[in-house]
Design brief:
It is a single chain. By secondary structure, this protein is mainly beta. Helix content is 12%, strand content 37%. The chain has a 5-stranded antiparallel sheet, with no helix packed on it. A 5-stranded antiparallel sheet has the order 4-5-6-7-25, with no helix packed on it. β8 and β9 form a beta hairpin.
Length: 448
């Protein structure tokens, strides 16, 4: 450390630097390397990054091209031009040489699962900012133990234990039906292994291969359905990463009885978001975008937009901070369910990712080439998570290529904070909705 600048000032400067710069600083001297790779520094750096405006953090975009078969990961500016400022290379090479599922992102970690086209149990937690990843061990529940089955994954963060977790719900295929309740297991980065949980009371089903999940307010969220008296009822299944209990959340009344194939869940602009697809005039695919403006209030669901420019097979992938919509547009048919079908239909799946302004109905191309169903768009937080050697992460080379290094801040000075370093290492506090739930003393599987 410098003899001319107080240590506390140096720390406050370092906390506000991007991970790429800090990675270079670990080569300056042993004391800086020890400081920057410590749990205390990594957690404090993240705690000062999370409160920054969404526009000061990048957008992660993934797409797949078929000529040749290749995945592409980019970080885009989250304002103005949406220019690419970094190109990333994934450490996970899928078994089929196609692409893995992007389960979700939390605090700079990207969860990838190679489960879309073949039976596999490869799950990776990847932080491109520090060029490290963890490949999870083989789960407890496999086809060797239970036979044919389907599963859904959830990825999130346990703020109480400062731990990243993957939860896995496994439905064993019976004779014509799935067996309830599902078997449940959770992987903990801190514990470095899988352990079993109770799935008692879970009488809901997922759409095989088509499930989506998101993480918000300490909980993983999935859209599930339940068959009752010959009808289907949809709702949101929650898994709390701290107490590891399941709960239920109601959807907007108009979505309860629709075909669950039409529903996808996400987080946009910090709000729980549901995309509802339907056929409009001339059988064009349309999408209603629903947001829950107050997390703890079921009455706060509202329809934000109705998008009618998707063609026959387009998809909505998210919203920007100013309300523009990410769309993948194509003139082809519906999605594919298997690798063979993918090979047969990829020619009519090509499309482009565009940014659509619902106010003036104008579009701007963000990624010009890709297969429509393969895009992923999500807010991303650059962090140092996994940098500490005790995390057991693996390093890999050649994983980060600068394309155009630009400032993430749309204006000079935006995104800075005046936080004071505290000894409390807690990164996320429980929000008002959680406190309200505790006051109502909900059972482990109760409505929210």
């Amino acid at each position: 450390m410098s003899d001319f600048i107080p240590q506390e000032i140096i720390l406050q400067i370092l906390y506000r630097l991007p991970p790429k710069t800090l990675m270079k600083f670990t080569l300056v001297c042993k004391s800086w390397q020890s400081l920057i790779t410590s749990f205390c520094f990594i957690n404090t750096h993240l705690a000062k990054t999370l409160p920054k405006p969404i526009t000061s953090q990048p957008i992660l975009i993934r797409h797949f091209t078929d000529s040749p078969n290749r995945e592409h990961y980019f970080l885009h500016l989250n304002h103005g031009s949406l220019d690419i400022f970094q190109t990333l290379k994934s450490p996970l090479k899928p078994t089929t040489n196609v692409y893995p599922r992007v389960v979700g992102t939390v605090h700079g970690l990207i969860c990838l699962s190679d489960d879309l086209f073949v039976y596999t149990y490869r799950i990776v937690l990847w932080n491109p900012s520090v060029r490290k990843y963890i490949e999870l061990p083989r789960p407890n529940i496999t086809d060797d133990e239970v036979g044919p089955h389907m599963f859904a994954l959830g990825f999130g963060f346990d703020a109480k234990k400062n731990d990243y977790k993957v939860v896995r719900l496994v439905y064993v295929h019976g004779v014509g039906v799935d067996i309830f309740p599902p078997k449940v297991e959770v992987f903990s980065v801190v514990e470095k292994g899988w352990r079993m949980l109770s799935g008692e009371g879970l009488e809901c089903s997922f759409l095989e291969t088509r499930w989506t999940q998101c993480f918000l307010n300490g909980r993983v969220h999935w859209i599930v359905y339940e068959k009752k008296m010959g009808s289907v009822k949809n709702w949101v299944l929650l898994f709390d990463m701290e107490d590891e209990k399941f709960r239920k959340m109601k959807l907007p009344e108009s979505l309860v009885d629709v075909n669950p194939l039409k529903l996808f869940i996400s987080v946009s602009r910090g709000m729980l978001t549901v995309f509802e697809y339907y056929l409009g005039e001339a059988r064009n695919r349309c999408c209603n975008i629903w947001v829950r403006t107050e997390y703890g209030d079921v009455k706060s669901w509202s329809k934000l937009y109705s998008v009618d420019v998707l063609g026959e097979a387009g998809r909505v992938y998210g919203l920007t901070a100013n309300g523009e919509v990410f769309l993948a547009m194509s003139d082809g048919g519906g999605g594919f369910q298997s690798y063979a079908e993918f090979q047969d239909l990829v020619e009519v799946r090509r499309g482009e990712l565009v940014l659509y302004d619902p106010k003036n109905r104008q579009t701007k191309v963000v990624q010009p080439h890709g297969v429509v169903d393969t895009f992923f768009v999500g807010d991303y937080t650059e962090s140092l998570v996994l940098l500490n050697k005790e995390m057991g992460a693996i390093s890999y080379e050649g994983a980060e290529i600068d394309v155009k290094r630009k400032s993430l801040n749309p204006e000079s000075g935006e995104g800075t904070t005046n936080l004071v370093l505290e000894e409390d290492r807690s990164i996320i506090s429980r929000n008002d909705a959680d406190e309200e739930e505790e006051k109502r003393n909900l059972p482990p599987f109760g409505d929210l």
